[in-house]
Amino acid sequence: MRRRTWQRAAVQDALTGRYDFVSAQTLHSQLRADGSSIGLATVYRALADLAEEGEADSLRADGESLYRACASPGHHHHLICRSCGRTVEIQADDIETWAASTAAAHGFRDPQHIVDVFGTCGPCALVGASETP
């Protein structure tokens, strides 16, 4: 575990205050708007460290890494709203079983995987339905 500097604490606190995945640039802008003098490179490093240590989830979208404070310890998956970014951490035993059996069927051991399911959350679907003529 890395040393907890004020910069890392600021990044972690800002990340914890969000419900969605966020880019380093967006988080940096938020921190700067709140009066922090933290640099963008420091935000990138802190986010990468948090993700490596399991304190943040990371995913790639449109060629960019996005981060979210990790609410569940251990391996888990996400449902992510394409409209508002709301994210729900889920357990998916069927996926775990499928990944292990598929890997074994092909002679692979110790499979690792990441599953993020993108869709539209209920509230966003209702807004979209109300806008349909």
Could you characterize the architecture of this molecule?
43% of the residues lie in helices and 20% in strands. The chain has five helices and six strands. The strands form two sheets. Strands 1-3-2 form a three-stranded antiparallel β-sheet. A hairpin with a 2-residue loop joins strand 2 and strand 3 (64-69). Helix 2 (24-33) packs across helix 3 (40-52).
Radius of gyration: 17 Å
Number of alpha- plus pi-helical segments = 5
- Beta percentage is 15-25%
Q: Major beta sheet, specifics?
A: 3 strands, antiparallel
Order of helices and strands: HEHHEEEEHEH
Number of strands: 6
Distance between the termini: 54 Å
CATH class of the largest domain: Mainly Alpha
Based on Cα principal axes, name the global outline. Answer: flat
- Any idea what the CATH architecture of the largest domain is? Orthogonal Bundle
Structural class: alpha+beta
Oligomer: single chain
CATH superfamily of the largest domain: Winged helix-like DNA-binding domain superfamily/Winged helix DNA-binding domain
Mean pLDDT: 88
Tally of structural domains: 2
- CATH-defined fold name of the largest domain: Arc Repressor Mutant, subunit A
Name the poorly predicted regions. none
Cross-sheet strand order for the largest sheet: 1-3-2
User: What share of the residues lie within helices?
Assistant: 40-55%
